[in-house]
Design goal:
By secondary structure, the protein is mainly beta. It is built from 1 helix and 14 strands.
Length: about 220
Amino acid sequence: MAVLSFRGLLSLATASVFLGMVVAGFAGPNSRAAGPVADKDGWLDLFDGKSLDDWKPSEDPKAFKVEGGLIVAGPSKLTHLYYQGPIHKANFKDFELKAEVMTKPKGNSGIFFHTEHQPKGIPAKGFEFQINNTGSDKRYRTGAIYPTKPLDKVLVKDDEWFECHLTVRGGHVTLKVNGETTHDVDLPVNAKSGLFLSSGTFAIQSHDPGSVVLFRRIRVKPLE
């Protein structure tokens, strides 16, 4: 039986390390071996709880920040934060979306869907899952579809976590707040506002200088 000397063993170890470095070099320092991984039910996290690396703001880059694992929206002038990450190439048509949200008093926000990044103003594309419990707009409360399907009933309280659940299948849209359905409708191809369903990314809104809204665990399940 051949016995390797200490020098031979050292040479083998050095070669192994070198080979590992070569393989890592081909992979690249910023490569993701497997990409985003869904859980057993098909859900993927849009927010990692640590950074906004996969998100891009519009007007005010300081309107959104991460504190204690949460996205803090506001206070700021009207600004939107668009998902621009790798999941589904940031282009969703049929999907489910769940987000855990907390509004502070007078907080006003929303989650836009089927939209796309623009440098300023309210997104010209897509619709908004309205988030507003005690803000000034009494016609569009949490669970409304802005600007086409109002809801003037307050379902949840400020300073308490609640879940927003959105499902889009073809032209059919369902909104739920803490499991309670607020809208279950077919949005027309041409709504009164001129908006229509197509496909696109998501955006979170920071509404005004008096508004603060918190987000955590934002997840999506593509249905395409």
